[in-house]
Amino acid sequence: MAISTSNECTQADPQGRIACVTDFRDSTDEAVETAIPRRAAARTAKLASLPLGIAGRAVGGWGRRLTGQSAEEVNAALSAKAAEQLFEVLGTLKGGAMKFGQALSVFEAAVPDELAAPYREALTKLQAAAPPMSARQTHRVLAEQLGRSWSQRFAEFSDQPSAAASIGQVHRAVWHDGREVAVKVQYPGADEALRSDLRQLQRFSRLFQALVPGTEIKPLLAELADRMDEELDYRTEADSQRRFAKAFDADEQIVVPKVVASAPKVIVTEWISGTPYAHIIKDGTTTQRNEAGRLLAEFHYSSPTRAHLLHSDPHPGNFMLLDDGRLGVIDFGAVARLPHGAPPALGLIMRLALDGRSAELFEVLRSEGFVRPDTELDPEDVHNYLLPLISPLTEERFHFTRRWAQKQALRMGDTRSQDFRTGRSLNLPPHWLLIHRVTVGAIGILCQLDAELALRSIVERWQPGFAD
């Protein structure tokens, strides 16, 4: 095998970022197996192979179910075989396809049980699993990013990946100073795969709409595309994780692993171990579920104040309950920057809705862009639409359940109802899109956990504008 190289990487800077990257290429490049199918035509064909007939019936059936028809009237049986195919296509393609599947997985709590059951396990698998790339490929990327002598940085390195993500996989290792570390290595061709997938998935947005009641697929895909470049450069992720780690350093409830080193396609962080939220969702005790939910809510609402950032990839694969009872958080590729913290208007909207001050609520929504200037709406209808969504704040403790999520989806999706018409008339301003999606995703996890917690006290403490 012929190898050509350019300059070696220089010494890492004080934050562990690699100052330059070795150009380490195999002249027989075409013979090297790739982790992600790169050709757009091949990826399009795989995405198009999704069970369109079954999925099409599901779209129609779920749509009729959401309009209030009984389950007996709905001819939309989703088979386990179709679910397996969905996982195989989205998971093996990785890239944008897998990232989209992960985003869908947090919303399954809102889907009626008789329709969602075959898909639930398949979508959950996407949160933490995908076929790995070979050791040869992994070593190649490490050499390109950390230099030809990359192995000398580690006392030990496991070639067997411990986890897989949408654009990279994680290896367990021991740093040269003895620290256990997680090494995330980006798949070759991840950038091409993301761009190709997101273009094709946008074509199928209507097909997938029924999978996520209560949200819109097109804005979700647009947001994934907008944030693509940030997620592809692990140095940006490393900088975000450093800020989170500093904000939560020595915290009694939340652990963010420190960054050890980073390069554009490799990031090395401290290793943490715990019980993944996916396991708690499946087999956790009531105590585990409630505590996992409380910690997640604490992290979600406190981050904008403490770190001026919002972790924007809420799916169970990114959270774990450590043996000492703390919440472990990983994967900071998607982060919203909130230099002034969470917007006080959000807390004010919650407060006015709770107090029944519909006229004032309507004016705040209009000033924030939720009501367009040329839109005529009854303030009482808007209040009636929003009030059930903040019902978790009306009680000292609230039990988040799949049944509650399904009820909200049915209410907002019933085309015969006033709530449906009101919801369709409201606007979601671009600068609110990410906060909205992350909050909905976090609530989706709480419903999957079947967690009961005192959410109101957390919101009172951390959300500006709510208790003012």
Automatic annotation (TrEMBL):
<protein>
    <submittedName>
        <fullName>Putative unusual protein kinase</fullName>
    </submittedName>
</protein>
<keyword id="KW-0067">ATP-binding</keyword>
<dbReference type="GO" id="GO:0016301">
    <property type="term" value="F:kinase activity"/>
</dbReference>
<dbReference type="InterPro" id="IPR004147">
    <property type="entry name" value="ABC1_dom"/>
</dbReference>
<keyword id="KW-0808">Transferase</keyword>
<keyword id="KW-0418">Kinase</keyword>
<dbReference type="GO" id="GO:0005524">
    <property type="term" value="F:ATP binding"/>
</dbReference>
<keyword id="KW-0547">Nucleotide-binding</keyword>
<comment type="similarity">
    <text>Belongs to the protein kinase superfamily. ADCK protein kinase family.</text>
</comment>
<dbReference type="Pfam" id="PF03109">
    <property type="entry name" value="ABC1"/>
</dbReference>
<dbReference type="InterPro" id="IPR034646">
    <property type="entry name" value="ADCK3_dom"/>
</dbReference>
<dbReference type="InterPro" id="IPR011009">
    <property type="entry name" value="Kinase-like_dom_sf"/>
</dbReference>
<dbReference type="InterPro" id="IPR051409">
    <property type="entry name" value="Atypical_kinase_ADCK"/>
</dbReference>
<feature type="domain" description="ABC1 atypical kinase-like">
    <location>
        <begin position="125"/>
        <end position="340"/>
    </location>
</feature>
